[in-house]
Design a protein that fits this description.
The chain is an alpha+beta fold. The chain contains two helices and seven strands, in the order βββββββαα. It has helices at 94-103, 109-123, and strands spanning 6-12, 15-29, 32-36, 43-46, 52-57, 62-74, 78-88. Belongs to the ATPase epsilon chain family.
Length: 125
């Protein structure tokens, strides 16, 4: 099983959101949604506005992060998610974010942030 895992670090400027082993990582990038498994080819991509990152940890549990801006860096042995700002799904008030999404104009920063947070919560619901 150990050869099927890889190291993942999810960070924002103000905090380390996750650091540990994973079996799978899914992220929305500006090039489309990508899935990462152990030994994935090197990749560097920009995270999509309004997207999220979902990490399947080595024990099978999922961790979702609403990430606004930043980059995904994949090497042969590890993955780094470098977000401009990020929030864990379990810290998000889904009702408040749905209200914010409806109140915001499509394409604005507020709209994209709410959409990102809703996606993160729904990814682990």
């Amino acid at each position: 099983m150990a050869d099927k895992t890889f190291r993942v670090d999810v960070v924002s400027p103000d905090q380390m959101l996750y650091s540990g082993d994973a079996t799978f990582l899914r992220a929305q990038t500006t090039d489309g949604e990508v899935g990462i498994l152990a030994s994935h080819a090197p990749l560097f991509s920009e995270l999509a506005p309004g997207g999220c990152v979902v990490v399947t940890m080595a024990d099978g549990t999922k961790l979702a992060v609403a990430a606004q801006g930043g980059f995904l860096n994949v090497t042969g042995t590890d993955v780094k998610v470098l977000a401009e700002s990020a929030q864990l799904a379990d810290e998000i008030d889904l009702a408040a974010e749905r209200a914010a999404l409806e109140a915001a104009e499509e394409g604005t920063a507020a709209y994209l942030q709410a959409r990102s947070r809703i996606r993160a919560v729904e990814a682990v619901s």
